[in-house]
Specification:
Bound molecules: copper (II) ion
Radius of gyration: 25 Å
Number of strands: 10
Shape: elongated
Order of helices and strands: HHHEEEEEEEEEEHH
Largest sheet: 5 strands, mixed
Helix content: 40-55%
Oligomer: single chain
Distance between the termini: 70 Å
Length: 270
């Protein structure tokens, strides 16, 4: 009986472990699903947070010590000192050193995100007011991705995050994302992959990710773009190579670029 319970528990772990959407009362980042996000979380958890806690603790201690030790009743004749060269040098130098220490790993991560390895899959994301349009330039696939309204949500679909047409990419492959916008500034952001790039009209920004776990990942437009800014989520489904090929063959028919463009032309000429 106990063994059975244990096995069920173990089976349950992956679904809870690989959370990839925001949770109620969440503290910290979403679980990383790419090397780059893993590095970011490590940098944040093991370097930034300890430094922040130490500085806050130290300042709190200094303030408390000053308030108690030098209060009027205990220290009736306050010192008239206005300068202390040694202390002034220290409180300039130490923060500089702390910044340098933080800058080194920070730049390392930044540069690793900036150099895009050879892409296995290229997708283009175009921000519109207020939805995302996607294109797979090498596969002749094009589709729009709208948020699922609250009353149309299927079980398991998160509110304000699920979309009708998800982006599908293969697991463990380098996905290059070309990001642009058609009207105003938007931003394509996926927390689990550590990806966030502005979508600028008339300019193509690039980023990349390599998802290491299969699953559905949610993101949102992250640049205030108008009244429905909060209602243009991003959903990326990471699947196995076989499932991806299967999806591709369906999508090539369903979202065929030429046909969609021909239909638009026909409509326009009518
Ligand atoms: Cu937007």
């Amino acid at each position: 009986m106990l063994k059975k319970l244990l096995y069920t528990f173990i089976l349950l772990i992956p679904s809870t472990l690989y959370a990839n959407e925001p949770k109620d009362w969440q503290l910290g980042f979403q679980k990383p699903a790419s090397q780059s996000m893993y590095e970011i979380v490590k940098f944040h958890d093991y370097m930034l947070v300890p430094i922040i806690v130490a500085i806050s603790g130290f300042v709190l201690f200094l303030m408390a010590y000053t308030c108690i030790r030098f209060r009027a009743s205990r220290n009736p004749n306050p010192s008239k000192r206005t300068h202390n060269v040694a202390v002034e040098i220290l409180w300039t130098l130490i923060p500089c050193l702390i910044l340098i220490v933080m800058a080194v790993p920070s730049f390392k991560i930044l540069y690793s995100q900036d150099t895009i390895p050879k892409a296995d899959v290229t997708i283009k994301a175009v921000g519109y007011q207020w939805y995302w349009g996607y294109e797979y330039p090498d596969e002749n696939i094009i589709f729009d991705s709208y948020m699922v309204e609250e009353e149309d949500l299927k079980p398991g679909q998160p509110r304000l995050l699920a979309v009708d047409n998800e982006v599908v990419v293969p697991v463990n492959k380098v996905v290059k994302v070309l990001i642009t916008a058609n009207d105003v500034l938007h931003a394509w952001a996926l927390p689990s992959f550590g990806v966030k790039r502005d979508a600028v009209p008339g300019r193509v920004n690039e980023t990349w990710f390599k998802a290491e776990k299969e699953g559905t990942y949610y993101g949102q437009c992250s640049e205030l773009c108008g009244i429905k800014h909060a209602f243009m989520p991003i959903t990326v489904k990471v699947v196995s190579e076989e499932d991806y090929q299967e999806w591709l063959s369906e999508a090539r028919v369903k979202f065929a670029k030429e046909e969609i463009e021909n239909d638009k032309l026909k409509l326009a000429s009518k």
